[in-house]
Every structure is written in structure tokens, then in C-alpha cells.
Amino acid sequence: xxxxxxxxxxxxxxxxxxxxxxxxxxxxxxxxxxxxxxxxxxxxxxxxxxxxxxxxxxxxxxxxxxxxxxxxxxxxxxxxxxxxxxxxxxxxxxxxxxxxxxxxxxxxxxxxxxxxxxxxxxxxxxxxxxxxxxxxxxxxxxxxxxxxxxxxxxxxxxxxxxxxxxxxxxxxxxxxxxxxxxxxxxxxxxxxxxxxxxxxxxxxxxxxxxxxxxxxxxxxxxxxxxxxxxxxxx
Length: 234
Ligand SMILES: [Fe+2]
Known about the structure:
This protein is of the alpha+beta class.
């Protein structure tokens, strides 16, 4: 287990760092990794935004992971409690699933394998993984909000937040707080492969809004979010 996930409760890895996950993906599965990231062009609008916005596109699928095997679970609505999501909690949201080609992409397996290694000693631990592809669009007319619910927890054990692409974006700074809501970090994931891994039990997180750097051009922020839930024996 990576000790940073115990204290301070999160870690940041840049794509440029030696032995980064991104370096491995580029070297070992460059084409598949490219295809995986290109699938963010196939996301669909989130119709549930309660602030009346049109800035979020997404896809959602759920998996199990155990002993190095990834299993897609039957598609289900996304549910968060009102406690964890004050804006969109307490009701089912029906999002379109990941495309089959994205689900089968070997880069996804390597990302999950890397994550699980960071926070688990046991290879036989069963994990439930909620997998989100997000695109936050913005324009001169509309600010994009990566976390419209504000600073929050996801109700998971661990969370991967990985940058896929920033296109003409200003803002989008990731904010990290401890359980006493003391600010620990404000960090911007800039490059593809820059990532944060968060112990959700110990950390609150949020992201500042995004605006276009050049207001005359299209602008968006693509992010992969995987939430890991330890499957507890009954
Ligand atoms: Fe979150």
C-alpha cells in the first residue's frame, strides 16, 4: 500500500514523473491509450444538471475487479445519497454506458491494476468500481463546473481522478481538504496522465470552475474518474 494514502490521504502523480502510469501506458500500449482517450469525443449530455447548465457530458459503467480480472456489471442507474451529493443525490440518474470498445480497451485494465496496487495489499480483495467519463465544456456564454455540488466526498474508499485532455481551458484547479475541512492542496492537473489518487475516507475534494482561455474557440476538460468500493464480506 502507498503510505501517502494513509497520510496525508492522497497522492499526486504527474505524467512527467519517472515510472509514471502515463509513461507506462504510452510506452506499452500507445495506440490503445490513444483510442481510450479519443473515446471522450463520444460522450453524451448530462440531462440532470439542476443549475440549468448544459456544460457536462458523460458515460457511466460499473465493474468488479478481483485477482487481476475486470468484469463488467449489468448497466445500472447512478445513485448517490443526498448526504454525499447535495445537488444531485437521492435519486437515480440514468446515464449511457461506456462504449464496448472503451470497456474492452487494455489501457483501462492497466490503469485499474496500477490503482489497486497503490491501495491494497491483497490481490484477492473484491472491488466494485464506478467508472465515469466526464467532459466539462465551457464557452464565453457558460462557465463549466467540474463539481457543481461543491467540495464533497464520493462515498467510496478510493478515487482516481486522471486528466485526459484540457482544450483551451483556464481554471479547473483540484482542491483537497482534510476531514476538518482544512485546505491541504490546490493543484491543477494539466497534462494527459496527470492524476490524483484519494482516500475518500480521509479527504474532501472539489474542482474550481473552468472558462475558455480564448473565448472565440471551443473549450473543454476531459477527466476519468474511477471510484473504488471495497466489497465487504457479509
Ligand atoms: Fe467527486
